[in-house]
Amino acid sequence: MTPRKTNLFATPDEAEHAFYEALETGDLAQLMEVWSDDDEIVCIHPGGQRLIGHDAVQSSWQEILSNAPVPIRPTRQHAMQSMMNAVHTVVEQLTVDTEQGQQIVNCYATNVFHKGTSGWRLVLHHSSQAPDDLGPTDRQDMPDLLH
Question: What ranges does the record list as Basic and acidic residues composition bias (predicted)?
Answer without folding.
Answer: 136-147
